[in-house]
């Protein structure tokens, strides 16, 4: 036998007990008599009109509580200039500022040097970020360990940063350390739903706190600058890097430092031992 159904009781459950998305038949812990589902639908739409709950796009019968949490931005407490919040390899700091919070996206072909670039990000930021630096890899300890030793033979053991093997649900673990530097190698794309990739980046960005940065590597198709997922991957990043096998370019620079046209800059390089960049120079065109 179901419980008595009132608008007040329903709104109280949504505001104080609902966690995330829910199907309307599961409100009040699923105790509503199915005979009242028609009435319940009407009451849910009243909740929408009152700003208590909203439908989940594309999912019939699914709802979410109104999100009333707001993070106030104290812009007047900041210095007038954005500092160097992250050290970028290949002297890329000369071209742009990276504010907090931010995503830096590195899109590259297979074997273009994405892992080398991200390993250099980790190595170059040990002093700046100390023990608030997190590195997520898809490879095992043997392969990654050899690359780290080739990059920095003086790396202390254990290192000051944390390294984890992880291949999905990155936003969940970023949320545990929202103001850290998170280096993700790499974010896989569901080739059946490449359009959903932008949502994954948005989840990572939303998991960052006001002091966090995420550097994310992704695969890109041959002959294109953007990662799999296309334009949807360009919404969140403050810096979007596109890598080929001997050079990289900037697809997006949100806060440029120079008067130079960053869209024409090409940084050419060679890589030794899979991690060490050399013969680095810039060209324009």
Question: Helix and strand layout, with pairings?
Answer:
Layout: H1 7-16, E1 22-23, H2 27-30, H3 37-49, E2 53-55, E3 62-65, E4 102-108, H4 114-124, H5 126-129, E5 133-137, H6 141-151, E6 162-165, H7 170-174, E7 181-185, H8 197-207, E8 213-219, E9 239-243, E10 247-253, E11 265-272, E12 276-284
Parallel strand pairs: 4-8, 4-9, 5-6, 5-7, 7-8
Antiparallel strand pairs: 1-3, 2-3, 9-10, 10-11, 11-12
Description:
The protein is an alpha/beta fold and 285 residues long. It folds into two domains: 59 residues; 204 residues, 3-Layer(aba) Sandwich (Rossmann fold). It has eight helices and twelve strands. It is elongated. The model has no long low-confidence stretch (mean pLDDT 90).
The helix content, as a percent range, equals 10-25%
Q: Major sheet: size, sense and barrel closure?
A: 9 strands, mixed
CATH architecture of the largest domain: 3-Layer(aba) Sandwich
Q: Please tell me the total number of domains.
A: 2
Spatial shape: elongated
Strand-residue fraction? 15-25%
Q: Compute the average pLDDT.
A: 90
Number of helices, counting only DSSP H or I runs of 4 residues or more: 8
Number of strands: 12
Write out the strand line-up for the largest beta sheet, numbering strands in chain order: 6-5-7-8-4-9-10-11-12
Structural class: alpha/beta
User: Gyration radius, to the nearest Å?
Assistant: 23 Å
Instruction: Report the end-to-end length measured between terminal Cα atoms.
Output: 74 Å
CATH class of the largest domain: Alpha Beta
- The third-level CATH topology of the largest domain is Rossmann fold
Within CATH, the superfamily of the largest domain carries the name P-loop containing nucleotide triphosphate hydrolases
Which consecutive residue ranges, at least 5 long each, have pLDDT under 50?
none
How do the SSEs run, as a string of H and E? HEHHEEEHHEHEHEHEEEEE
């Amino acid at each position: 036998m179901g419980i008595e159904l009132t608008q007040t009781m329903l709104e109280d459950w949504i505001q104080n007990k609902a966690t995330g998305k829910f199907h309307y038949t599961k409100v009040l812990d699923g105790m509503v008599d199915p005979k009242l589902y028609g009435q319940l639908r009407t009451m849910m739409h009243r909740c929408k009109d009152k700003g208590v709950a909203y439908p989940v796009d594309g999912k019939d019968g699914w709802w979410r509580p109104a999100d009333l949490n707001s993070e106030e931005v104290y812009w007047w407490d900041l210095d007038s200039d954005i500092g160097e919040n992250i050290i970028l390899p290949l002297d890329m700091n000369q071209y742009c500022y990276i504010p907090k919070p931010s995503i830096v996206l590195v899109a590259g072909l297979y074997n273009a040097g994405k892992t080398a670039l991200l390993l250099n990000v980790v190595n170059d930021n040990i002093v700046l970020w100390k023990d608030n630096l997190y590195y997520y890899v898809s490879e095992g300890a043997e392969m990654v360990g050899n690359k780290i030793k080739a990059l920095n033979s003086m790396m202390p053991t254990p290192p000051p940063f944390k390294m984890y093997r992880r291949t999905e649900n990155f936003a969940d673990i970023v949320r545990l350390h929202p103001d850290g530097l998170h280096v993700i190698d790499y974010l896989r794309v569901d080739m059946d739903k490449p359009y959903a990739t932008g949502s994954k980046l948005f989840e990572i960005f939303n998991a960052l706190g006001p002091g966090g940065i995420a550097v994310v590597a992704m695969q890109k198709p041959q002959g294109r600058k953007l990662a799999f997922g296309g334009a949807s991957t360009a919404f969140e990043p403050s810096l979007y890097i596109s890598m080929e096998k001997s050079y990289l370019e900037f697809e997006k620079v949100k806060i440029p430092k120079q008067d130079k046209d960053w869209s024409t800059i090409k940084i050419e390089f060679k890589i030794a031992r899979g991690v060490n960049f050399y013969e680095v120079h810039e060209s324009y065109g």
